[in-house]
Amino acid sequence: MTTREGSLEAPKRLPIDWENPEYYDEPKLFAEMERVFDICHGCRRCVNLCTAFPRLFDLIDEGPTGELDAVEKSRYWEVVDRCYLCDMCSMTKCPYVPPHPWNVDFPHLMLRAKAVKHKKGDVRFRDKLLSSTDAVGKLASIPVVVQAVNAINKAPTTRKLMDSMLGIHAERRLPEYDSHRFRATAQPNADHEVRNGERTPGKVAIYSTCYINYNEPGIGHDLLKILDHNEIPVRLVEKEACCGMPKLELGDLHAVKELKDKNIPPLAKLAREGYAILTAVPSCTLMYKQELPLMFPDDEDVKAVAKAMLDPFEYLAMRNRDGLLKTDFKKSLGKVSYHIPCHLRVQNIGQKTKDLLQMVPDTKVTVVERCSGHDGTWGVKSEYFADSMKIGRPVFRQMAQHGPDYISSDCAIAGRHIEQGMGETSAHKVHPLTLVRIAYGLA
Q1: Is 382 exposed, middle or buried (0-12, 13-18, 19+ CB in 10 A)?
Q2: Residue 188: closest CA among 323, 310, 285, 278
Q3: Helix-, strand-, coil-residue percentages of the chain, each rounded to 5
Q4: What is the CA radius of gyration of the chain?
Q5: Lowest mean pLDDT among 5-19, 71-85, 304-318, 382-396
Q6: DSSP 8-class letter at 315
Q7: C-alpha–C-alpha distance, residues 167 and 252, integer Å
Q8: What does the alpha-carbon distance between residue 365 and residue 360 come to, in Å, rounded to a whole number?
Q9: What pLDDT, in 10s, does the model give residues 193-236?
Q10: How far out from the chain centre does Cα 416 lie?
Q11: Where along the sequence do coiled-coil regions lie (predicted)?
């Protein structure tokens, strides 16, 4: 076996062999975890990324031999449960990712472990509930019901009950639901002339995502206003369901396939009709760009959607390079503390949000490029809330450092987490798309 560290080739992710029965063979899973964990033990450069690696190294260091062979395999699950699949270790730290012969893909190994655990039925009701974003959103955003849900999510008494009965931490600030769902209230303008650029299609389809549809529809409306201001014809995706990322993080890969079968046909049709497909939630964009293509590597429709799927700022930046983006900004934004979420960083598109915000006159953008620690549903859970706040502490400090007028993150959930971690502040928490709408002077 080679001892070469690193590789001159670009890192790559290999297809996920999740439909192979051996994928769910627990002894083979443990053998692969033992192989990878021993490599991680000899390297340890990921120790500062999350709590999964410190837990692994503590298990090793506290053992009688100081090596992995003294760790009971049943305790490997303590490492698995602390991984929230941010992909940062694979994308930014590990020197042994493919095409290196050691073939270390820690996040996808943890995904396999979560899938084995899910198949065994070792899943809490809370985790099934939190990952059912579409079903919960549809119910919670019903008029009248939405008022009760939002009140319950804020009341100290009911939050203590949720903590003790469900394992949702009483101190975690939860997003509100909105009865004015984005898909029901959006008025996309499809009347503009299609102007294709060298790099960009001249027409856009919006995949709203569960969060934008049920929790913060204003973000979606701001995206529509920006596109309309730039005279880009827009339509909504005809029908959509959850992208599947919450179920992926749970290890419920068959549910991911069911959602893929609902979403891909209408999305592939749009892709082949020449639409750019935009999503305002980085995790959803990543799901279509990376995870589904790795789960279904031979599906041509999945490939077509992956090629057409873009982060909004990725699209706007390319539109600017094509000379087709308006830069008639009317209002400065002052000082903006901007956080790049993990699921945007791993898309390898550069700092497109920062680049666009810095085009606004008299605006200073301070970039924080570090995991905030919330990570989907993980930071909501009672047993991980303290860890999520600890991971986020450097981010909270850096975001507050320069006395910003705005704090902003492409991940709205990370933005809320950062706001909570910062505590008392005069800064306004605003999504980057809303900042662009403000800068354009649009109502």
Answers
A1: middle
A2: 278
A3: 50, 5, 40
A4: 22
A5: 5-19
A6: H
A7: 20
A8: 10
A9: 999 999 999 999 999 999 999 999 999 999 999 999 999 999 99
A10: 14
A11: none
Determine the residue type at 102: W
Q: Is 43 helix (H, G, I), strand (E, B) or coil?
A: helix
Task: Name residue, tokens 């730290």.
Answer: 93
Report the top-level CATH class of 327-440: alpha beta
Instruction: Mark out the alpha helices in 141-204 (DSSP H runs).
Output: 145-152, 156-166, 182-185
Q: At what angle do helices 26-43 and 106-119 cross, to 10 degrees?
A: 150
Sign of CA dihedral 414, 296, 272, 247: negative
On whether the CB atoms of residues 395 and 371 are closer than 8 A, the answer is yes
Buried b (16+ CB within 10 A) or exposed e, 19-51: eeeebbeeeebbeebeebbebbbebeebeebbb
Categorise residue 14: left if φ over 0, alpha if ψ from -120 to 50, beta otherwise: beta
Which residue, among 437, 370, 366, has the nearest Cα to 403 in the 3D structure? 366
Of 263, 278, 286, the closest CA to residue 13 belongs to 286
What is the per-residue pLDDT for 170? 97
Task: Kindly list the domain boundaries of the chain, sorted by start residue.
Answer: 21-120, 182-243+250-318, 327-440
The pLDDT tens digits for 372-429 are: 999 889 999 999 999 999 999 999 999 999 999 999 999 999 999 999 999 999 999 9
**Confidence band, pLDDT 50/70/90 cuts, at residue 4:** low
For residue 168, what are the β-bridge partners?
381
In the chain, the percentage of residues whose pLDDT exceeds 90 is 91
| DSSP secondary structure letter of residue 346 | T
Is 313's pLDDT higher than 60? yes
Is residue 355 within 8 Å of residue 368, measured between CB atoms? no
The average pLDDT across 241-245 equals 96
Using the 8-state DSSP alphabet, how is residue 205 labeled? E
Residues contacting residue 89 through CB under 8 Å, at least 6 positions apart: 46, 49, 50, 53, 106, 107
Show Cβ contacts of residue 142 under 8 Å, excluding neighbours closer than 6 positions: 179
The CA-to-CA distance between both ends of the chain, in Å, stands at: 62
- Give the type of residue at 375: D
| Overall pTM > 0.90 | yes
Q: Which DSSP category does 21 fall into?
A: G
* Degrees to nearest 5, angle at CA 330 with 327 and 331: 115
Please spell the DSSP secondary structure of 331-344, one letter per residue.
S--EEEEEE--HHH
> How far is CA 148 from each of CA 168, 172, 351, 370, rounded to the nearest angstrom?
18, 18, 40, 36
